[in-house]
């Protein structure tokens, strides 16, 4: 009986154990079914975590969706290639009046002194400037004298206009630094010339070229300028360093360069004040900005922004800046707003600095590198 009783106990124990195992297996199967396929990952995740590693992201789709949502808020600036094609057409469309007028004179059979006077006057009216107009006239006249009736007048004019615009001048904006430092672009110019717009557009151009940018709002006297720059920056995800209104512009420039170095940015673009009432103050301020900012990284480019519609007046103002600071490139804005394309030639001749960028409209991507051949072909189209 004793052995029968113990056998019964063993059987009952075995049944209970079996029931327990069945219950556990059933429970696990339900949990697994509820988790779906991702559930199979969990032991691996736990193992990775316990080894001190990073577990794989649980829901990559959600992260991707979040990222896509964030990027959707940013604008994608127009690519350099399509921008150049579009703006080249605009240049050709707006500037042909000068070329047409010059070719109309040159196409006459026997060119008299009156014709040559008209030729020169046409150049002057297009803001080419006295010195350059005289030079172009003399060269075209000499070429036609040598070549006689067989002269290809269009080719002669094209050649001399290209020489006047200067195809050999350096046009590349120095936006890259050396030794791991960012390139630093200082932007100067009188208020109203389109300086803020140019900086916003240049930031977009840099972004379109794959560069990373930090902007410095060192025109601390105009709160609106800093506001505008911030808006431009936000549109393309570019950080803007600004100080309180009336802050020392040099310290804002210094902070902007420091931020550029910290973020390993390719390029830092610094806005500066454009008040002209006191040349000595302007000079002192720009020199200080330059000196203080270059404690962190050298200034690689100083761009002067000039409104193409202001003609000789604009040139006189521009000269104040070229005397105050070592300008390395000109940005000619509002070239779409004038039929007087000759200003490009006058600006370079009178300031001795190449035009590097041109503004050709009111759109955010209407800024393009200056291309002398496209410009002259636009004149003669
Ligand atoms: P800032 O005072 O020098 O900073 O000048 P803003 O950048 O505020 O520009 C003054 C005005 O000129 C604005 O209305 C701009 O839209 C306009 N502007 C700037 N560049 C161009 C350009 O290339 N073409 C045209 N048509 N307008 C421009």
Mean pLDDT: 83
Number of helices: 14
H/E element string?
HHHHHHHEHEHEHEHEHEHEEH
- Main beta-sheet strand count, sense and barrel state: 8 strands, mixed
The hetero compounds bound to this protein are:
guanosine-5'-diphosphate
Tell me how many strands there are.
Answer: 8
Q: Label the overall shape.
A: elongated
Low-confidence stretches: 25-71
Q: What percent of residues adopt helix (DSSP H or I)?
A: 55-70%
Characterize the quaternary organization of these chains.
Answer: single chain
- Give the terminus-to-terminus CA distance: 120 Å
SS-derived structural category: alpha/beta
- Major sheet strand order: 3-2-4-1-5-6-7-8
Radius of gyration (CA) equals 34 Å
Q: What fraction of the residues are assigned to beta strands by DSSP?
A: 5-15%
